[in-house]
Amino acid sequence: MNRIIGKLSFLLPYCVVAVVVIAAWPICQAARGEEAARKDREKTEVVRRLIEGLGNKDVKMKGWIDSSRPYLIIPKTFDWELQKHIGENVEKLVAMGMDAFPELIAHLDDQRFCGYWETAEVGPIHVGPICEEIMERQVEPFHYDVHAPIIIAWVPQTLPRGKKTDWEAWWKKNKDKSLRELQIEAGEASIRILKHAKQPNAIDEDFDSWRARQIKGLERMVGKLKRSKRPMPARSGQDLHLLRQDYVQRVGGEDRYYFVSP
After folding, report:
1. Per the domain annotation, does 244 fall within a domain?
2. Per the confidence metrics, is the pTM higher than 0.85?
3. Which of 89, 101, 102, 258 has its CA 20 to 30 A from that of 76?
4. What secondary structure does DSSP assign to the chain, as a single string?
């Protein structure tokens, strides 16, 4: 017996190491969990600060049509520096991807003034719709690629629109999916909607030809997503149609913001 014990004695250091590792494993796992939780809290705080920074001072502007060129009369109190900062915050939130979705959804009913849409239909935009737009442009980035030639034409919608409770239910169902998976599902849903859609009033051209082009474009993008391991890049936050100071012209003693670049 002593001879056997002597032959096995070389295993003693390994046994000691094994015991230490087994004993320390729960502690290490707990430490990793705490570190992950700390990073999540820090990331959430960054998102909250960025969303808080989306608010601008609410100023009333008059919109006019001048020779078929829509414009706003910009008051002197409008804060252009803050507007530029808002655009930067939008870009950062887009770059954070799905990590920002919970807080963006939490702010969907945020009615703080953000800016004005740079569209022919002049109107104010609030923080809540901007938060929704940030998510849409990530899950459905292909819509503006496929449908861009039509501009205001009907586009199939696959995400909740406007209702915070619907977005909360959508997130609960989809939060464990990757952005790539969500993009594939949205693309396939758009194709199904298009195949059974009736011609909307917004499209003047032959609807069947238009629909065939859109379906072909979507099928191409969905196929590319399925072959790739990465999602499609989100559309830039720079095309959110927020006002740009370089579009302002001094006309007749007032600052006019024309919706066509000078």
Report:
1. no
2. no
3. 89
4. -HHHHHHHGGGHHHHHHHHHHHHHHHHHHHHHHHHHHHHHHHHHHHHHHHHHTT-------EEEEETTEEEEEE-TT--HHHHHHHHHHHHHHHHTGGGGHHHHHHTTT---EEEE--SSS--EEEHHHHHHHHHHHHHSTTHHHHSGGGTTS-----S--S-HHHHHHHHHHHTTS-HHHHHHHHHHHHHHHHHTPPPPTT--S-HHHHHHHHHHHHHHHHHHHHH-SSPPPPPPGGGS----GGGEEEETTEEEEESS--
